[in-house]
Amino acid sequence: MCGVIGYYSDERDGFADIVNGLFQMQHRGQDACGVAVSDGRRLRLHKGIGYVREVFGHRPSDDFAGRLGCGHVRYPTQGGNRPENTQPHMVTTLDGGILALCSNGDIVNYWGIREWLEARGVDFEGSNDGEVLAKYIAWLHVSEGMPLVRAIRRLQDDIRGAYSAVLVTRERLFAFRDPYGVRPLSFGTDGKDWIIASETPALDIARMDFVDEVGPGEIITWDEEGMHRLPHPDIIAARRGRVDTAHCIFEHIYFSRPDSKAFGHLAYDVRKRIGAWLAETDDVEADVVVPVPDSSNAVALGYAQASGLPFEIGLIRNHYVGRTFISPEQSRRDEGVRLKFNPVREVFEGKRVVLVDDSIVRGTTSRKLARMVRGAGASEIHMRVGSPITAHSCFYGIDTPSRQELIGSRMTLDEIREHITADTLRYTTVEGLKSCVDRPEGFCFACFDGKYPIAVAEEKRMELVEAGT
Ligand code: 5GP
Ligand code: MG
């Protein structure tokens, strides 16, 4: 998963807005970040491994400024955490940078496109899908002389998977999304300047008003003549059969900030509705509802409000620990849970606890927390999960592990309950989850129901298995 941002102004430097926006989206990627800016004449790039504050604590140089640009925070799904895989990817010719692109998502026919480009003499530095997007567009534009909008349309036709992307040239800014609109991408304005971002808090921080989401398959351009929206043409829809959307439901469950609006919903509302659904379908007797902060706070609140049980903050989170899920080895993940949470004994002592988390992936967090909560005096633990059983890998940008590592694909419900040592365990059902969004048929639930809306090539599945990710 990653976060992208774009900025366009006729005159004002956008470096600070880009960096502040990336900072608001730091949760979408903590490994690396980068910014490309153009002053109208020169397109320049600065990127590095580390948090936004580390890489962009200072302007890279006094003249690193521009009235248009794009930026990225990275959480690797394709390609390791190496400098050559960081984004934006800039394509340069003899007279300097011609375009820079950054993308959020994951494409499923990466190798097919890469080999096609390699056969035409294009070199690759890393193994990140953003590089394929950038170089595919650049090749069509430079070698075939295709205008950029046409090159992007071609890409939307040929490259399958999830991409919410921002592209900047010396004078124009482009935002576009795959025809299924898997990943979010919104844009806003203060009446003069524009920001495009994966999550709306990046607009809020710049005091930009939300205008709309970039439509699935849409291309939007900004240049001296203003903004132009180019919706997805029917022709592609016809060729593909019914192009419906496949918005990632996991954005609302876990990934997005609660104050983000995506796919027509505020994530906070969806989470509260999930909590309410869990409570309304529950008959457990308990004394207190406690979230596993921060990702399940709103789910637990929704549960508490619907059940009438008191909501207590019984687990205190240390905010200086990165997301535990990110640590690659199991031993570090285990330690991470203890470093991250400390129980408030006074909340748990003698209580029957409804412990709410947004998801169970490998089962590490729930098992450790159950032990911790019991150690803090809880008499019963009723684990409630704000999503269905995670039983399938994601090929569209969420870094879910391979199926073997997903506890939900290896164990029955009761085995999971036993493994995490809860007294009872309930998940949200897929149908229950669907009732928490409008137009559920427009969402992708593949990590829960295994129904992949975009065909995943066998090579891609194998790659995931081999990488053991
Ligand atoms: P588990 O410990 O079961 O492997 O993971 C469950 C925990 O990881 C939950 O607390 C959930 O909030 C968090 N989580 C779920 N999905 C993701 C993800 O894609 N990335 C990260 N960093 N954490 C996740
Ligand atoms: Mg969590």
Folded structure, characterized:
This protein has 469 residues and is an alpha+beta fold. It has 18 helices and 23 strands. The chain has a seven-stranded antiparallel beta sheet with strand order 3-2-4-1-10-9-11. Strands 5-6-7-8-12-13 form a six-stranded antiparallel beta sheet. Strands 17-20-21-22 form a four-stranded parallel beta sheet, sandwiched between helices. The radius of gyration is 22 Å and the shape is elongated. The two termini are 14 Å apart. Guanosine-5'-monophosphate binds next to helix 13.
Q: DSSP strand (E) fraction?
A: 15-25%
Task: List all distinct small molecules, including ions and cofactors, that are bound in this structure.
Answer: guanosine-5'-monophosphate, magnesium ion
Label the CATH architecture of the largest domain. Answer: 4-Layer Sandwich
What is the highest CATH level, the class of the largest domain? Alpha Beta
- Total tally of structural domains: 2
Give me the count of strands.
23
SSE blueprint and pairings:
Blueprint: E1 2-8, H1 15-24, E2 32-38, E3 43-49, H2 52-55, E4 68-74, E5 89-93, E6 96-107, H3 110-118, H4 129-143, H5 148-158, E7 161-168, E8 173-177, E9 186-189, E10 194-197, H6 201-204, E11 209-213, E12 219-223, E13 226-230, H7 234-240, E14 247-248, H8 249-255, E15 261-262, E16 265-266, H9 267-280, E17 288-291, H10 297-307, E18 315-317, H11 330-340, E19 341-343, H12 345-348, E20 352-357, H13 364-375, E21 380-385, H14 407-410, H15 413-420, E22 424-427, H16 430-434, E23 443-444, H17 446-449, H18 458-467
Helix pairs in contact: 3-4, 4-5, 9-10, 11-13
The structure holds guanosine-5'-monophosphate and magnesium ion (MG).
